[in-house]
Amino acid sequence: MTRTRRALTLTLVLLTTAAGVSACSEAETPVAPQATPKYVGTAAEGDHNDADVEFATQIFPYHIQANVLAGIGQARGESQQVKDFAASLGEAQAEATAKLGGWLTGWEQAVPTDGAGAPLNAEDVSKLTAIDPATFDVAWLSLVIQHQQASIKAIDAYEEAGQNVQVEEYAATLEEEQRADLSAAKELLKELKG
Predict the structure, then answer these.
(1) What is the pLDDT of residues 21-71, one digit of tens each?
(2) What is the pTM of this model?
C-alpha cells in the first residue's frame, strides 16, 4: 500500500471514529477513539537491543493518539489552518505507525493496539469531540502542544541507549519533526488567541 493510500485510509478510519464518538449522548462516558491499522513489515536492518524495542513500543501509542488528535482536528476544526495542520499531522503519524509497526512485527514483538501509555489523558482527548466549536481550535492546539512536548521528552530519553542505526536515525528525524510541529502549533495558537 502506498504512503498516500495508507494515510488516506487511516484518515478515513479516524474521521469515521471521531464522528461516531461525537454522536454519543452526553450521558455516555466518553471513550477516546482509537485507530489500529494492520502491519506487515520487516525488522529494522542490523542488530537491535532492548532499548530499541522499548522505544518503538513506547512511542507507538503516542503516534496512535496523535492520529486520533489529527482525525478530530480535521473533523471539527473551525479554521482552515487547524484543518490543514491536522491533515499534515495525520499523514506524518500514519507513516510513523507503519514503520514502527513493521519493525515490531519483524522483531516478533507485540504491536500496541491502542493509545494506552500515550501522554494525554484519554478523557481529555474525548472531550474534544463535544467541546463548543468556538473554543475547539484553541483547546485542540493546546493538547497537540502537550502531546508534542511529551513525545520529544520520550525521544530524548531513548538517545544513546539504542543499538540499531535505523531506529536511532528515525528517532533523530522524529525529534526534528516533532520540534517543527511544536513550533508551528505554538505559532498557530498565538495567532488564534490574537
Answers:
(1) 343 333 333 334 444 455 556 778 889 999 999 999 999 999 999 999 999
(2) 0.79
Q: With CA atoms as reference, report the closest residue to 94 among 69, 76, 121.
A: 69
Contact 187, 123 (CB under 8 A): no
- 182: helix, strand or coil: helix
| CATH code reported for the domain at 3-24+43-193 | 1.20.1260.10
Cα 57 from Cα 60, distance rounded (Å): 5
Which residues touch 7 (CB under 8 Å, ≥6 apart)?
90, 91, 94, 95
The predicted-structure confidence for 138-165, as pLDDT tens digits, reads as follows: 999 999 999 999 999 999 999 889 999 9
pLDDT at 11 over 70: no
Q: How many CB atoms lie within 10 A of CB 137?
A: 23
pLDDT value of position 194: 81
Per-residue pLDDT reduced to its tens digit, 124-140: 999 999 999 999 999 99
Q: Which amino acid is at 92?
A: A
Q: What is the DSSP string of 110-133?
A: PPP-S-TT-SS-HHHHHHTTTS-H
Q: What is the residue type of 65?
A: Q
Q: Are 127 and 29 in contact (CB under 8 A)?
A: no
Cβ atoms within 10 Å of 93's Cβ, excluding its own:
25
